Amino acid sequence: MIAAARPYDPQDAPSVSMADPADALTFLGVADTGVGVVESVRAGLPTGAIERLAGVLDVGQQELLRLVAIAPATLTRRRRAMPARLSPQESDRVYRIAAALQDTVRLFDGDQPSARAWLKEPAKALGGQTPLAYLGTEVGAAEVHRLIARLELGIYP
């Protein structure tokens, strides 16, 4: 009897890094221009964007799926479909996290390990929650982007 292959879990491998912080979106298969992003999200991101984003964030796939509100069974079903794409709504949630990651890496001048660590550390300005946890909702993501903007200006909450 042949054992079934275990799904890829980014925690089984070392964290992935982006060659350039500006590549966070193209890394996920998203055009990094306004119109291109909208078209990519509307068409649905490739299902592989989940694994790539989990790898770049250095979080488990299950944690990322919870954050973007995609059931593991749904992801499995999407992977089997041709083309293997997320829905526009799922893609929008994945994009939201990738865009915040890109801004965070830029905040840390390309230092991806520091950016990942910051996203996972509780922030006083976010009521003691992590920026990553806040990215689970649109309003939370807006707060994270506002916090990043304040930090870029040297305004420490």
What does this entry look like structurally?
This protein is mainly alpha-helical and 157 residues long. It has one domain (17-152). 56% of the residues lie in helices and 0% in strands. Helix 2 (34-43) runs antiparallel to helix 6 (88-107) and helix 6 packs across helix 7 (112-120). The longest helix has 20 residues, at 88-107. The chain is globular, with a radius of gyration of 16 Å.
**Which structural class is indicated by helix and strand composition?**
mainly alpha
The number of strands is 0
**Integer count of domains:** 1
Count of helical stretches: 9
SSE run: HHHHHHHHH
Strand content: under 5%
Low-confidence stretches: 1-15
Shape: globular
Helix percentage? 55-70%
Mean pLDDT: 84
Using the CA coordinates, give the radius of gyration: 16 Å
Q: What profile does the largest beta sheet have?
A: none
- Taking the alpha carbons of the first and last residues, their distance comes to 59 Å
Please summarize what this structure is.
With 157 residues, the protein is mostly helical. It has helices spanning 24-27, 34-43, 48-57, 61-67, 72-80, 88-107, 112-120, 131-134, 138-152.
Write a concise keyword list for the protein shown above:
157 residues; 9 helices
Structural topology:
Elements: H1 24-27, H2 34-43, H3 48-57, H4 61-67, H5 72-80, H6 88-107, H7 112-120, H8 131-134, H9 138-152
